[in-house]
Design a protein that fits this description.
16% of the residues lie in helices and 29% in strands. The protein is of the alpha/beta class and 347 residues long.
C-alpha cells in the first residue's frame, strides 16, 4: 500500500492541508503513529494526540479546528465523516491484501464438487462431495467444507473453520477461524434409568447474505429443518447458537452470548456479551439485551433489558440502588431489633 495525500483526498472527496505529495505506506492509531503512517481523528477525546503524533497524514472532520500548532511533518485531509472515510480506506486496504486466485497443494476438491472462478484455496483445505462454491471465494488453509454444502459468491472462510454437510451459506459471508457451522445440536433424551440416548440431528444451518461470524463461534444444525442466521447478522467470537434457533435480519451479538434451542430472535436485536437466552422463546424486534443478562422468557415488545432474569433497564437501576444498600439496611434493622429487645426487658 502506498498513497499520497492527494490520492487519499481524491478517494474520499476531501481537502488537503499541507503537503499534497506526502506519502503513507501503512495505517496506525493516531496515538501510535509513525512516519509513513496514516491515522484518523473522529473522537474529540483523542484530539490531544494530533498535536504530537508522528503520523504523516491524518484524516479529520471538516469541522476540526486546531487549538495549537500541529507537527510540521503532519498533513491533514479534511472530510465530511472521518470515521466512515477511514473505514472506507481500511476496506480498500483489505481488498488490496486479499489472496489472489490460486489452489495451493496439498488440498482436496472432490470430483463431484463445483467451484466458481476466482477461487483461492489454501493448503490442507478440504471441499467435499457434491459441494458448490460460488465466485471469488477465499478459503484459507485447513478449512473443512463437508458434503453437499452450498456457498455463495464473494465468501471468505478463514483458517480452520469447519462447515458440516448440507449447510447453506449465502453471498458475501465471512466466517472466521475456528468457527464450526452445522455441528450436532445438543439433543439427548433420558430413559427410565436416566441414561441418555442421542437424538439424530438431521437438519442443517442456513446463513443468508452479508453475515459475518466471529472466530470460535458455533452454530448447531437443526434436529429437523434449519437453524437460520438471517441476512446482515453480525456475530462476535465465542458465541453459541443452538439447534433450530433463528436470528433475525441485521441483529448483532457480542462475545460469549448463548442462545438455547428453538428460540426465535427478531430483527435488529442487539445482545451484549455473556448474555444468556433460554430456549423455545421469542425475542421481539429491536430488543436490546445488556451484557451478562439472562432472558428466561419471551420478550413481546422492544425494550432494553438488564439483569438476570432480565427486566427493563430503568427498573434494574432502581433495584440496584436498593440492593446496594442492603448491608446498611440489614445493619439498621439489627440495631432496631436490639433496641426493641431492650425496651421489652425494661417493661
Amino acid at each position: 500500500m502506498e498513497f499520497t495525500a492527494e490520492q487519499i483526498a481524491g478517494l474520499l472527496n476531501g481537502d488537503v492541508e499541507g503537503n499534497t505529495n506526502a506519502v503513507v505506506t501503512g495505517l496506525a492509531k493516531i496515538e501510535e503513529g509513525t512516519p509513513g503512517s496514516l491515522s484518523f481523528l473522529a473522537n474529540p477525546k483523542y484530539e490531544e494526540h494530533i498535536y504530537k503524533t508522528e503520523s504523516t497524514i491524518c484524516i479529520v472532520n471538516r469541522t476540526f479546528k486546531a487549538e495549537r500548532l500541529l507537527p510540521d511533518t503532519l498533513t491533514i485531509v479534511k472530510v465530511d465523516d472521518a470515521h466512515a472515510c477511514f473505514a472506507k480506506l481500511l476496506d480498500i486496504y483489505n481488498q488490496m491484501t486479499k489472496k489472489q486466485p490460486n489452489i495451493e497443494q496439498p488440498s482436496h476438491i472432490s470430483e463431484s464438487a463445483t467451484v466458481g472462478e476466482g477461487l483461492y484455496l489454501g493448503a490442507f483445505a478440504y471441499i467435499g462431495d457434491g459441494t458448490k462454491i460460488g465466485k471469488n471465494a477465499t478459503i484459507y488453509p485447513q478449512a473443512y467444507i463437508g458434503e453437499n454444502v452450498t456457498i455463495g459468491d464473494n465468501c471468505t472462510i478463514h483458517p480452520g473453520a469447519k462447515i458440516y454437510q448440507d449447510c447453506i451459506i449465502g453471498n458475501n459471508v465471512t466466517i472466521h477461524a475456528g468457527t464450526v457451522i452445522g455441528a450436532d445440536g445438543f439433543g439427548f433424551v433420558p430413559d427410565e434409568k436416566g441414561v441418555f440416548s442421542k437424538i439424530p440431528q438431521i437438519g442443517n444451518v442456513v446463513i443468508e447474505d452479508d453475515v459475518e461470524v466471529g472466530s470460535n463461534t458455533t452454530i448447531d444444525r437443526a434436529t429437523l429443518g434449519s437453524t437460520f442466521i438471517r441476512k446482515g447478522v453480525k456475530l462476535d467470537n465465542l458465541i453459541q447458537i443452538a439447534h433450530n434457533v433463528e436470528v433475525g435480519q441485521h441483529s448483532a451479538m457480542a462475545a460469549q452470548a448463548g442462545v438455547a434451542g428453538s428460540t426465535k430472535i427478531g430483527r435488529h436485536v442487539m445482545v451484549g456479551g455473556q448474555a444468556g437466552i433460554s430456549g423455545h422463546i421469542k425475542i421481539a424486534d429491536q430488543t436490546q439485551i445488556v451484557a451478562q443478562s439472562g432472558i428466561p422468557g419471551s420478550v413481546k415488545k422492544a425494550e432494553i433489558l438488564m439483569g438476570s432474569p432480565g427486566i427493563p433497564i430503568n427498573d434494574f437501576k432502581k433495584s440496584y440502588f436498593g440492593f446496594r444498600k442492603l448491608p446498611y439496611i440489614l445493619r439498621k434493622l439489627q440495631e432496631l431489633e436490639d433496641k426493641l429487645k431492650l425496651i421489652s426487658k425494661d417493661k
